[in-house]
Design a protein that fits this description.
Layout: E1 16-24, E2 30-39, E3 44-48, H1 55-62, E4 70-75, E5 78-79, H2 85-90, E6 92-96, H3 107-111, H4 113-117, H5 122-135, H6 140-143, H7 153-165, E7 171-175, H8 183-200, E8 203-208, H9 211-217, E9 220-225, E10 229-234, H10 236-241, H11 246-252, H12 256-261, E11 276-278, H13 283-293, E12 297-301, E13 307-312, H14 322-325, E14 332-334, H15 339-348, E15 354-358, E16 361-366, H16 368-379
Parallel strand pairs: 3-8, 3-9, 6-7, 7-8, 11-12, 14-15
Antiparallel strand pairs: 1-2, 1-4, 4-5, 9-10, 12-13, 15-16
Helix pairs in contact: 5-7
Amino acid sequence: MDATAAGGAEGTAQEIRLDGVSKTYADGTVGVERLDLTFAAGELSVLVGPSGCGKTTTMKMINRVIEPSTGRILLGGEDVTRVDADRLRRRIGYVIQNVGLFPHQTVRVNVATVPRLLGWDRRRTRARVDELLATVGLDPAVHGDRYPSQLSGGQRQRAGVARALAADPAVLLMDEPFSAVDPVVRERLQGEFLRLQETVRKTIVFVTHDIEEAVRLGDRIAVMSSGGRVEQFAPPAELLGRPANGFVADFVGADRGLKRLAVTGISVDDLERPPVVHAADGLADARASLQAAGARWAVVLDDDGRLHGWLSGERAAGPGTVGSASHRMDAWVPVEASLKTAFSTMLQHEAGWVAVLDGEVFLGVLTPESLHRALRRSVDGTVPETAGAAVPAR
């Protein structure tokens, strides 16, 4: 989907800057302490922390559902505390936990809400609605004329995202949007949303209480404590590898090393290169290769360098070809995957190593030892980090 197709310049991602923003209620309660935060254009920034720490208050001040007590909120350099609040909200997409679809209106009418308010003509509106429904995985012909009550929870959430994106806003605010669905649907929605963000590249502020969700989705994460204080604002790998203080360390959990696997990509430099034989080779030649390398097994490739399987030393005996004696290799991941995906694949197949492929081309293998080295290197900041890098293995 072209991010500017329907909204022109309005669809271009814009930086959000909170400059000395605070919220103090009439009874003296401090909802949010003085905040100085910058949410980079085109990035997904997550606000995470315990209940009552001011996450949602901070987000609602951006679109002025809650008015700040002090400070400025700059959207693309413009101080939005000085503009008409209704006009502002039409420029900002908003997705909430319970979706908020109008129950008496069809999905198509729900998604068209903001374009209609902006005065778009019917033809342009319908084209945009159909495009977005298809983008979020809802067939316009099937789901467009249904009512929210006729959709599953996951489908309603997709419709809510489509409605928020309908006028191609520069900014998207999301308040625990996936917490009301079951874990399986939630993980699927998170994956779909990451793929959508790769296309639209909106500036997103995302609120959650779940550090696992924050780590999977966020380009940067702000950990907040009571009173609306930001304890640390950093990329997931830095947050997990170097918590700023005891509060952050406790919040991200003692298993933060395992969580870090999810945000650390595979580096080709970390791969081991075991002996390689080809399916058409004779077993006698393969046995000689294994003996020369002092290895107990070899990777088997076809003539085009694609993964065929693996051959154990015990089966490299007698007449015949490598292909006829090799084992099927199910433990593999694409090079774009995270270390978590590699580790999970290793455990799932009870394998001592996992092959890494670039498309169909074999690059090398990760073993528990090389995976540990890769993780240690990522703590030192020398391995590129990824957000939401999990890719299903076949």
